[in-house]
Amino acid sequence: MSFPSRLEDYALIGDTHTAALISREGSLDWLCLPRFDSPACFAGLLGTPDHGRWLITPHGEITTIRRRYRGETLVLETEYVTATGTATVIDFMPLRDRDINVVRIVSGNKGTVRMKMDLTLRFDYGSIVPWVSRDKRLLKAVAGPDAVYLDTHVELEGRGFTTVADFTVSEGQEIPFTLTWRASHSSPPTPVMTKRALSETEYWWNEWSTRCTYEGPWRDAVVRSLITLKALTYAPTGGIVAAPTTSLPELLGGVRNWDYRYCWIRDATFTLFSLLVAGYHSEAKAWREWLLRAVAGKPSDLQIMYGIGGERRLPEVELKWLPGYEQSAPVRIGNAASEQFQLDVYGEVMDALHQARELGLAASEDSWRVQHVLMEYLESAWDRPDEGIWEVRGPRRQFTHSKVMAWVAVDRAIKAVERCHVDGPLERWRALRATIHDQVCREGYDSDRGTFVQYYGSTSLDGSLLMIPLVGFLPPSDPRVRGTLHAIERELTEDGLVMRYRPTGEMDSLPGGEGMFLPCSFWLVDNLVLAGRRDEARELYDRLIGLRNDVGLLSEEYDLKNKRLIGNFPQAFSHVSLVDSAYGFSHIESPSEHRQRS
Predict the structure, then answer these.
(1) Could you say which DSSP state residue 397 is in?
(2) Quick one: 181 and 231 in the same domain?
(3) Which candidate, 364, 373, 369, 325, places its Cα nearest to that of 346?
(4) In 3D, which of 331, 327, 250, 329 has the Cα closest to residue 559?
(5) What three-state secondary structure class fits 308?
(6) Do 284 and 156 fall within a single domain?
(7) CA distance 580 to 217
(8) Sign of CA dihedral 251, 317, 31, 258
(9) What Å distances lie between residue 530 and 2, 490, 523, 596, CA to CA?
(10) Which of 43, 166, 318, 336 is the most buried (most CB within 10 A)?
(11) What's the pLDDT at 505?
């Protein structure tokens, strides 16, 4: 097999604190411990097996591989058919009590299957070889603050700097392996009762999934996306990471490789909306409370992203010892975009809290105080140029989408005063809303081409312009909205998929391009629904969910040339957009109730 695997060949397991990626061939190639943004102890995804992996797979030729999640859970089953028999590997992470555990159970289905295990632990993103010792059935690997224990009845052997095992599984036999992380100064973990842990984990996920209120034609895709969002949630704080990975490239071999193991403010609106309409009010409340804690402070210091605990300092560093996924260097941890000024996040915060009120989430005592302070700052800052929604590493500009979202911020503040009777300078805000709207329609619209443009004075298009009718800035029937939709279909769309923008030297300083952006493609679905082009919308939606891998996961982007998922994986933004669009079809007759967030 090639290493690392294609992104399509990975499945996700997690415990709402961190998550692992496991390939079809049984190789666990990515896991950060003890939380999403911790250093990886298996970083083979961004390099070679020597950078860390945990392989459990049959010896010799495998004739068939079949895998699935057990029901509506995050318990993964991978069945291997060989010439001598069939075996299944069951992978899961028990919901965390005290320890962080990864459980892998090899189960014999038919005949006998000769299996092998290869455990290569490397701390700090593949840079540190731990000291390994054994005590009876417990293997301990320790380096600095980290200790990882492997518990199994199988006889282990050290070979070089790797722990290996050869064993046979017969029909009806189960052979468990449990990997546990603990701080290196702590005592060894207590044994995990694997059968009980499996039963409890499966029950928990199935119970959680039954709360989903969606009953439409795409229920399986919606529920799997919601499970993925839950898996990307950091339970102690309620924050949701954009993805569990870093530096998976937006173009194979390219340099647009970013760390997504953080919480983006921009995603808050979409995520809150998805959770609330699907019936997950407790998760939405936790996400809102994370948001309010994270943005607390001077409004001028509002960041576009934060750490999963609300951390603000996310310095960007290159890990030069890792060659990158399929030689896509550099590998980065941290994200310098956290220091950018992006005007649209003020609109995202205001819209997220507006949606929470509109969809029945009980009001928070601090919510309006935070919003009022943000509005006071925005009144003097809305006309400043910024880096825009896509975090371009180029000059600041007057991005049209940014101004639209500034309008959204003011509009949602006005609605709070009108509908919820909170205090605010209503007439002043109404005047500001009109001023911003007039400027966007005057400066951000190209009347010769009949379309809104990426930034004032530009002739370029941008996928974010598809948000104009979705946020209620203009109605779907407005000729300017229709013209923009047609222009994006004509110039940014290929095979139904939408580019964010066409990367050029004037936009950012990075070489090379990127794939088709899946969230923008779902926004196109939403626009087609609002435009009354229902059959086209359904056809495109089916096309998009058909890009999911065999266990229902999507990355950030899609490479049309190589027909591959690219970008960080799985991507929360893509799965949120999938859920939102599915619900959009449920409200076709009265779209203002759903897709137009106004």
Answers:
(1) B
(2) no
(3) 373
(4) 250
(5) coil
(6) no
(7) 14
(8) negative
(9) 44, 18, 11, 9
(10) 43
(11) 55
Tell me the per-residue pLDDT of 231-286, one tens digit each, with 9 for 90 and over. Answer: 999 999 999 999 999 999 999 999 999 999 999 988 877 888 899 999 999 999 99
What residues contact 70, with CB distance under 8 A and at least 6 apart?
A: 76, 77, 202
Tell me whether residue 16 is exposed, middle or buried, using C-beta atoms within 10 angstroms of its C-beta: 0 to 12, 13 to 18, 19 or more: middle
Domain extent for 496: 216-593
In a domain, 208, yes or no: no
Tokens representing 290?
A: 């994370």
Q: Other C-beta atoms within 10 Å of 196: how many?
A: 10
Q: Which amino acid is at 144?
A: G
Backbone angles phi, psi at 584, to 5 degrees: -60, -40
Nearest to 31, CA basis, from 181, 191, 224: 181
Which structure tokens are listed for 303?
A: 């960041």
pLDDT tens figures, 141-155: 999 999 999 999 999
Residue 196 counted as domain residue: no
Residues 293, 303: contact at Cβ < 8 Å?
no
Residues near 177 by beta carbon (within 8 Å), at least 6 away in sequence: 56, 103, 104, 105, 106, 117, 150, 151, 152, 154
pLDDT confidence of residue 267: 81
pLDDT for residue 509: 65
Angstrom distance (rounded) from CA 98 to CA 118: 27
Structure tokens at 105: 């159970």
d(CA 234, CA 309) in angstroms, rounded, equals 8
- 409: CATH: 1.50.10.10
